[in-house]
Write a structure and sequence with these properties.
Elements lengths: L18 E5 L6 E5 L2 H4 L32 H4 L4 H4 L8 E5 L3 E6 L2 E5 L3 H17 L15 E3 L2 E3 L3 E4 L11 H18 L3 H8 L16 H16 L2 E2 L12
Antiparallel strand pairs: 1-2, 3-4, 4-5, 6-7, 7-8, 8-9
Helix pairs in contact: 6-7
Amino acid sequence: EQLLKGHLEETMSPWNSPVFVIKKPNKDKWRLLTDLRKINELIIDMGPLQPGMPSPAMLPRDWELAVIDIKDCFFQIPLHPDDALRFAFTVPSINSLGDAVIVHHYMDDILVCAPDHSLLAHALDLTTNALAAAGFELQQDKIQRVPPWKYLGLEITKRTIVPQKLAIRTKVQTLADAHQLCGSLNWVRPWLGISTEDLAPLFNLLKGGEELSSPRSLTPEAQVALEKIQKAISARQAHRYHPGLPFKFII
């Protein structure tokens, strides 16, 4: 959406910051965040651009008001051309080398998938050569060639997919704890068949005060939901797509 509007543009910048999403408080919407901590370390502190918040006390009495909210304002603020490259980021992508090879790329992790060893070796050579030509250094000893393959927190075998060992934080005392718990569960649920209804009592913990330090505790309903999810984590697994099926459904 932001690309179509011209707020973002594709780039070959050597800079790359990670992105992630968090659920907006009291809304069924998500906020895209860029981890700019490494960029902030390089920026010279100019001091505050706006000294304090505007005070409504200075609005004349009995005047009518209207409040405007700018949608996606962050993406609409133009960056100086000299600095724009430093704010580059990547999102997950799925690419294909011909009809038989699939390449999944996210940040610095690349997965290459092919129907047989010969085609995989060829695709792997093409991929590594392209990366080397672009100036990237590869860690040959970390290239995984035999199962189980570990990718983006998942453990993949010939037929199944399960999350790698996941520690679920069950002690919830603050909104920050609830965010961490719901974020972890929301990530694993596609692989474990966990529905939105299953998570609803836990996501209800995000409602209320917006301060990350505001108190939270597991309700009886949330405790039951958490036990159900922990059971699913220990017993369930996802299965890889079967090429022999008469259809292919991809989300």
